[in-house]
Amino acid sequence: MVARDLRYVVLGEDTAHGNFVRRWLIAEGVEPRNIRLIPPPAGTGGAGDEHVKRKYPEEVAYYRRRANAQRVALVIVIDADRETVRHRQRQLDEALSENQSPPRADPERIAILVPKRNIETWLHTLPGTPADEETDYKPLFVGKTAAACAAAAPHFQEFLQRTPSDTDLPSLAASRSEAARLV
Question: What is the average pLDDT score of the chain?
């Protein structure tokens, strides 16, 4: 569950990442006008992770300037690809450090969601289809990601509220503590 009265800024690798988070936040009861998606650069050609790593320190600084006066939150979505969730989080920590910014603190409403292998893994498994984090499910969603995001987002909301299971994908399991930062 997330705080419905926050203003959310969403930074993702591509349109699918932003759409998924937007649909999830709306399923949680957040007004669409309180969600701002940072558009990915045109023609990144698969370099969306670099876009996120480059923009992350700027968006954290923006969040920190506004957090004292407004109820705001920042949601980052970056694929783990063939790396680990923790590896991606460390890369974002390093991006802050390189910009002489303090690391993300516990009370800050900055959530980092890291689907492994990619967001399509979550889109595939959340509606109930078994999946693993090594298979590339992206080809299954060519031309269908918008509909898949709309279908999977309410399942993500339900996933976050249910009791953890040993069968949960590790990247989805890690998303629970990240989503909890948004209350």
Answer: 95
Buried b (16+ CB within 10 A) or exposed e, 76-115: bbbbbbeebbeebbeebeebbeeeebeebeeebbbbbbbb
Q: How far apart are CA 150 and CA 29, in angstroms?
A: 14
Tell me, yes or no, if the pTM score tops 0.90.
yes
Maximum alpha-carbon separation in the chain: 44
Q: Cα-Cα-Cα-Cα dihedral of 106, 17, 25, 164, to 10°?
A: -60
The dihedral through the CA atoms of 104, 109, 115, 116 has a sign that is positive
Residue 127 corresponds to which amino acid? Answer: P
State both tokens at 134.
């090594």
For 75-102, write each residue's pLDDT tens digit. Answer: 999 999 999 999 999 999 999 999 999 9
CB 114 within 8 A of CB 89: yes
